[in-house]
Amino acid sequence: MGQFALSVVGRDRPGIVAEVSRVLFELGCNIEDSTCTILSGQFAMILVIAHEKFSSSAEIDPFFDPVRKSMDLTVSLHTLKDEEVSREKGFEGRPHIISVYGADRPGIVYSVARELARLQVNVTDLNTQVVGAKDRPVYMMVLEVDIPERVDMKELEREFDKIRKELSVSISVRPIESLEL
Amino acid sequence: MAVLPIRIFPDPVLMKKAAPVEGVTAEVGAFIDDLLETMRCSPGGVGIAAPQVGMLRRIVIVDVSAHRRGSQEQNHGLLVLINPEILAMGGKQVVREGCMSVPDYTANVQRAQWVLVDALGRDGERRIIESIGFEAVAIQHEMDHLDGVLFLDRVVSVKTDLFRRKKYR
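Structure tokens for the assembled complex are given below, as produced in the milestone run.
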């Protein structure tokens, strides 16, 4: 069995999911995992698909040519090695939400991400958006991260303080408390 | 006592309505012991309902006293609720819930902030319990199981409320 990462991007309109899933269905591919979203009017799909016989993405790729043409979609595929596919997370840590917002300026995502990477904090979800009035844009970023036990939260706060001052942004960090029922 | 296997979605038993318990017999007591042991052996587990182990009876157990946040709020410790009925509820709160029967997802679910519940206890005595905060969420989640309702049925928006489980314990 081969597994593949498939990504599809195109101007949002009805029928993209139907066309992509039709191609997969007719090929006999299973959709193992997927997420779709709309970013600035672009519909974006990322899927992990599996097929019993195909082992190389090149065998599947040409079947998407018709939808590339008819719906003007950018479709890319690559083969995943067995060891790359995991349903379990590879990093330990306590889940937290980090919200960052402030007047739009370059470097907000990078400054925060660089600090998290230095502390070996794993980003598991990230959403950014520009909101607010056109002449006064506000940048908003919400991250979900796993913070390892060994990370000193006071140190993290001190580093975030520097970013707060440097970029005039608000940053808040709070644990995600979930109930296991 | 014994740890019972947890039924996992889409097991049809999770979508069925549970029947009231006729009397709190020794047999029911033994089942409650097993249900409690099953809940305790699940890491972080703060609640369980009888249908989650395939028993279609109106029994739930909740105990948030060992939970990080739950322990800091008002709570009743171990609560065994037989044939529970919600008499009144009010307020709103959104809490991220996970479920032993739906291992792949967690979701933000809106629940009442407080509930007033009429139920029989482990001893068969009727009591009225007022619960707020995390404990009230746990009670509502577990009582949903008695009516074949999963927290997934209460998700309002996939975009903002549904999360792939990132933490495997």
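The beta strands of chain B are 47-49, 59-62, 79-90, 93-99, 102-111, 114-120, 126-132, 162-164. The interface with chain A takes residues 42-48, 64, 67-70, 95-100, 106, 134, 137-138, 141-142, 151, 159, 163, 166-168 of chain B (CB under 8 Å). Further analysis is deferred to the final report.
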